[in-house]
Amino acid sequence: MHEPGPGLERLTPELLARYDRPGPRYTSYPTAPQFTPDFGEDAYRERLAVAAQRPTDPLAMYVHVPFCEHRCTYCGCNVVISPHHGPEEAYLDAVERELDLLADALGPRRTLNQLHWGGGTPTYLTPDQCRRLFDAITSRFSLNPRAEIAIEIDPCVTTMEHLEVLAGLGFNRLSMGLQDLDPKVQAAVGRIQPLELTRRHVERARELGVGSVNIDLIYGLPYQNEPEFRQTVRTVIAELAPDRVACFSYAHVPWIKPHQRQLNEAALPRGWDKFRIFAGAVEEFLAAGYTFVGFDHFARPGDELATAMDEGRVHRNFMGYTVMHAPDQIGVGVTSIGDLAGAYAANQKNLARYERAIASGHLPVERGLLRTPEDELRGSVIHRIICTLTLEFGWVRGRFGIDPAEHFADALAELEPMANDGLIVLDADGLRVTQLGRFFLRNICMPFDAFLKRPADRPIYSRTV
Question: What are the structural domains of the chain?
Answer without folding.
Answer: 1-30+372-454 (1.10.10.920), 32-329 (3.80.30.20)
